Amino acid sequence: MTRLPLKFPLGKRSFLTLAEAGPADAASLLTHARQVARESDFLNAGPGERALTLAAQTAFLRRLRANGAGFVLKGTLGGRLVAVLSLVRPTQPRLRHRAELGLTVRAAHWGHGIGRRMAAVAIALAAARGLRKLNLRVRADNRGAIGLYQALGFSREGLSPRALCVRGRFFAEVMMGLCLDPPPTGA
Hints:
alpha+beta
């Protein structure tokens, strides 16, 4: 089983630390969300479009831990938050086998393997916690993210035309999924 925190070398002198975010991290997670909203048009919410309060973010993180509804991973470099991955599962019994994955990385750190490391750890944690399916949605023209998810084993499951409207322009979203079925026993 994957144990957190984990450290991965990035470059010669830098280490990515992955840890589970908790209620004490709520303010830094909100700041991160505001920063990435300014840096990328690929996200579902742009600058100023998230109305989440500190109290609501704190309650969300407490709820995730209390009822096993998923987790949030934080990726830090030198103590600075550079990436966040959330994995949230529904509470309904018929849907609890699956979770929705969301990943954001600060633009200055794109292409350094941070998203790949975080997603790989999240997949291992999800499997260890009994999840059987991961889903995500990604803007159809975000080739870098789609390539990353495909390299991790996700496959395209559908397309939602005109799913996002950014500055009056429509974009499709690709729905992707990854089955986490356990290996057959006795093999």
